[in-house]
Design a protein that fits this description.
4-stranded antiparallel β-sheet; 2 domains; 12 helices; alpha/beta; Rossmann fold; globular
């Protein structure tokens, strides 16, 4: 099966400082990829690059991003507009990044639909009503006649998700889409995103801090640390048998139902301006050796659909 999205050796700088380091992965039609990691690991920067919505000081200095075998980096602004919102849906952590504060919700749905397909205002509003109901919003006619500031933060986030899903995109790119929602609504939104995948074979990238969302929703997991991917593979193998010390630490930091206290990760991520040799996680890792501290760590295939950027794990795998 061909990839719907392929990232190849992506490097991104911010004011000359490298903040995304040699990232490569691909997503096939209908796959869901979860990207996890602490705040500051580069997850949101990566997401912005995928949709060509980068901040002024950010620059892709190497690599490429292919959507259905066409380079997004080579597309003109006009070509990109036809893809975003139509073929690629986008949900940001802050709904204010998506919703126009001075336009009523209904008008925003109508504008999105009319910009991509031939449809009447009445038909567009009807489709908007159905989509809002799918993200568990009530009194949808009232919502469509409201401005964003008249709704709660959670309601605005569900509206933003509905707006991203209204064109039934082939790829849905989401950055912490459930962070502003309570647990019950989170489950409902996750269910609707999975329904989108099941009904239309939509691929999804979801950035999240929630291992619950990861365990319930995704097919593959990319663990990010300090701007790079340190572990990548199938959800089941990573959650049941995490290999990289950082992945193990993330999972150990999750509260358990058995009453055992979670184990925090000592220290903090390095500043991107710090030019460190070797593994950026080494100062926080209790398994680090001299190779870890001085040898550049790159993702390597260790079999069973698993890639690791860790010289310690490579040594252990070779000894088996």
């Amino acid at each position: 099966m061909s990839s719907i999205l392929k990232i190849k050796n992506l490097h991104i700088n911010n004011k000359g400082t490298e903040i995304i380091k040699d990232i490569s992965f691909d997503i096939k039609a209908g796959e869901i990829l979860g990207i996890v990691g602490e705040s500051g690991s580069g997850k949101s920067t990566l997401i912005r690059s995928l949709i060509r919505d980068m901040e002024n000081d950010e620059e892709i200095v190497e690599g490429d991003i292919f959507f259905k075998e066409k380079s997004l980096l080579d597309m003109t602004s006009k070509e990109l507009r036809k893809v975003k919102g139509n073929k690629i849906g986008i949900v940001f952590q802050n709904p204010g990044s998506t919703l126009n504060p001075i336009k009523k919700i209904g008008k925003q749905f109508v504008e999105v639909l009319k910009s991509h397909i031939k449809i009447s205002k009445k038909e567009a509003l009807k489709r908007a009503e159905l989509m809002l109901e799918k993200v568990n919003l009530n009194d949808v006619k009232c919502i469509l006649n409201s401005y964003p500031f008249e709704l709660s933060g959670g309601m605005n986030q569900r509206v933003a998700i509905a707006l991203a899903m209204i064109m039934e995109p082939e790829l849905l790119v989401t950055d912490e889409p459930t962070s502003a929602l309570d647990v019950t609504v989170q489950a409902q939104v996750v269910k609707e995103m999975m329904n989108l995948r099941d009904n239309f074979n939509t691929s999804i990238i979801i950035v999240t801090h929630s291992m619950g969302v990861i365990s319930h929703m995704v097919d593959k997991v990319a663990v990010m640390y300090s701007g790079g991917i340190v572990e990548y593979g199938d959800k089941e193998s990573i959650l049941k048998d995490p290999k990289h010390p950082y992945t193990q630490a993330l999972i150990n930091a999750i509260p358990k139902l058995d009453g055992k206290l979670p184990i925090g990760i000592k220290g903090s991520q390095p500043n991107f301006n710090e030019k460190e040799k070797g593994c950026s996680f080494a100062p926080r890792c209790n398994k680090a050796n001299s190779n870890c501290r001085y040898k550049t760590q790159k993702l390597k295939d260790i079999g069973n659909n698993r890639w690791i950027a860790c010289s310690y794990i490579e040594e252990m795998e070779l000894k088996k």
